[in-house]
Automatic annotation (TrEMBL):
It is an enzyme of class 2 (transferase). PANTHER family: HEMK METHYLTRANSFERASE (PTHR18895), MTRF1L RELEASE FACTOR GLUTAMINE METHYLTRANSFERASE (PTHR18895:SF74). InterPro entries: DNA_methylase_N6_adenine_CS, HemK-like, N5-glutamine_MTase, PrmC_N, RF_methyltr_PrmC, SAM-dependent_MTases_sf, Small_mtfrase_dom. Keywords: Methyltransferase, S-adenosyl-L-methionine, Transferase. It catalyses: L-glutaminyl-[peptide chain release factor] + S-adenosyl-L-methionine = N(5)-methyl-L-glutaminyl-[peptide chain release factor] + S-adenosyl-L-homocysteine + H(+). Residues 20-75 form the Release factor glutamine methyltransferase N-terminal domain. GO terms for biological process: methylation. Residues 106-205 form the Methyltransferase small domain. This is peptide chain release factor N(5)-glutamine methyltransferase.
Length: 282
């Protein structure tokens, strides 16, 4: 194509260079580098670009065309309005998980001890801590655990970035951890059989241990129900995300293993079952 001068020119070049990538990923990447909101990106197609901006965009789009996720190219993602540092080997925060945070947030109270189980980037803890602060909920004690060193390192970077005091623990599910009032988790829940229908970018870039939950997708939950009573205070709650096709299996699992809990399922904004909460009636 002819020389790149405007944002419109760059957009055309990008779609030709990375034809297999989603237009929204290209738009997100270009807009973030140029410091434009989504609406500004659409309205400022005649924006004159500098030589440096064009050079950076060409580097970025070339990486995108090779299958690297836009968030990993930038080194950050957005979650609940907060910038979250990410890198390959750490799960990219998902929009659906914001709904889990909102649900848990509605049940937080002063003086509670909260665990973000399988913290990954630390996005759940960042959102809960900052939102609780805005709502005047005070004296919360945050813990974040994960099984990988990569996740714990990047989560600590995010806690530092957002000035949050968090105790970080390396743990496989709940083994070796303390007792908590609230446990929140977005665990691995994708069935092994769903690999064939997944986005290749996700499979190439994101950590398998944070995605896949075994043949039926519920290995985490099967272990969690065996351990949770030793790690919840009386009256404590948990909030978990799950795959929308797994509700029936989880209903049966919780009914069998946690009869002394009040279990509540919740649909996401797409009206699919996606979250479950349990309150210990002790």
């Amino acid at each position: 194509m002819s020389k790149i001068v405007t944002l419109s020119d760059l957009r055309i070049w990008s779609s030709e260079t990375a034809p297999d990538e989603r237009p929204e990923d290209i738009a997100f990447l270009l807009a973030e580098r140029l410091g434009l909101s989504p609406s500004e990106f659409q309205l400022k197609q005649d924006l004159q670009l500098t030589t440096e901006q064009i050079a950076q965009a060409k580097k970025d789009i070339t990486k995108l065309a090779k299958g690297i996720s836009p968030q990993y190219i930038l080194g950050y993602s957005w979650f609940y309005g907060y910038k979250i540092m990410v890198q390959r080997g750490v799960l990219i925060p998902r929009f659906e998980t914001e709904e889990l945070v909102s649900w848990a947030l509605a049940h937080l109270a002063n003086e509670q001890t909260i665990l973000d189980l399988g913290t990954g980037s630390g996005c759940i803890t960042v959102a809960l801590a900052k939102q609780a602060e805005e709502k005047g909920i005070s004296n919360l004690n945050f813990y974040a655990s994960d099984v990988t060193d990569a996740a714990l390192r990047i989560s600590e970077e995010n806690f530092l970035l957002h000035d949050i005091d968090v105790t970080v623990r390396k743990a496989n599910i709940l083994i070796g951890l303390e007792k908590f009032d609230v446990i929140v988790s977005n665990p691995p829940y994708i069935k092994e059989t769903e690999k064939d229908v997944m986005d290749q970018n996700v499979l190439q870039n994101e950590p398998k241990e944070a995605l896949f939950g075994g043949k039926d997708g519920i290995v985490f939950y099967q272990k969690f129900v065996k351990q949770v009573r030793q790690h919840l205070n009386p009256g404590g709650r948990f909030f978990l995300e799950f795959g929308f096709s797994e509700k029936k299996q989880l209903e049966e699992l919780f009914a069998k293993e946690l009869p002394d809990f009040t279990i509540e399922f919740k649909n996401d904004l797409a009206n699919k079952p996606r979250m479950v909460s349990g309150k210990w009636n002790k």
